[in-house]
Amino acid sequence: MERAEKHEFVTSLNDELADTGVVVVAHYAGLSVAQMTALRASVREAGGSVKVAKNRLVKLALKGTDLEHISDLFQGPTVLVYSEDPVAAPKAAVDFAKANDQFAILGGALGTTNLNPDGVKSLATMPSLDELRAKLVGMIQTPASRIAQVVNAPAGQLARVFNAYATKDEAA
């Protein structure tokens, strides 16, 4: 890469990282091309991105962002997994790490908060934003349907009583 290309790469990575909700940093040494392709596909499907770059360029790109405090994680062959959704990238990275021993999660950041590997794993177990929205809608709908059942119950009971009297009169 020429100097101008490096500057352009650092600028674009800085812009991308400034808009992310969470970043996971991991070692990827020993992964095959097929495994890296599978990682990229699973992270893209979850709504995130994967970036492999020189550590020095990533450290330059982190300057001026809320993620500058994770610069010390960039030693050796590292990969960035990031997304706007605070659960998507950690979930995809942890799932991939379970299937591939060579993929070692070093840590990450959620905004200005440092995450150690256990923090990334615990973040991965949380429900996504869409799942939380679905649960909230379900919780809101449940009382409304119960109210409708309670309101309709007396009318149904009256109808059953009238039906019982009618069948009793017919039988007699």
From TrEMBL:
Q: Name one Pfam family in it.
A: Ribosomal_L10
Keywords recorded for this protein, A-Z: Ribonucleoprotein, Ribosomal protein, RNA-binding, rRNA-binding
Matching entries from PROSITE patterns are given as: RIBOSOMAL_L10
InterPro entries, alphabetically?
A: Ribosomal_uL10, Ribosomal_uL10-like_sf, Ribosomal_uL10_bac, Ribosomal_uL10_bac_type, Ribosomal_uL10_CS_bac
Offer a single GO CC term for the protein.
ribosome
CDD domains in alphabetical order = Ribosomal_L10 (cd05797)
UniProt keyword annotation of Acyltransferase present: no
Tell me which SUPFAM superfamilies the record gives: Ribosomal protein L10-like
Record family assignment: Belongs to the universal ribosomal protein uL10 family.
Entries under PANTHER family matching the protein: 39S RIBOSOMAL PROTEIN L10, MITOCHONDRIAL
- What is the role of the protein in this entry? Forms part of the ribosomal stalk, playing a central role in the interaction of the ribosome with GTP-bound translation factors.
Subunit composition and interactions: Part of the ribosomal stalk of the 50S ribosomal subunit. The N-terminus interacts with L11 and the large rRNA to form the base of the stalk. The C-terminus forms an elongated spine to which L12 dimers bind in a sequential fashion forming a multimeric L10(L12)X complex.
Protein's UniProt name: Large ribosomal subunit protein uL10
Tell me what gene encodes this. rplJ
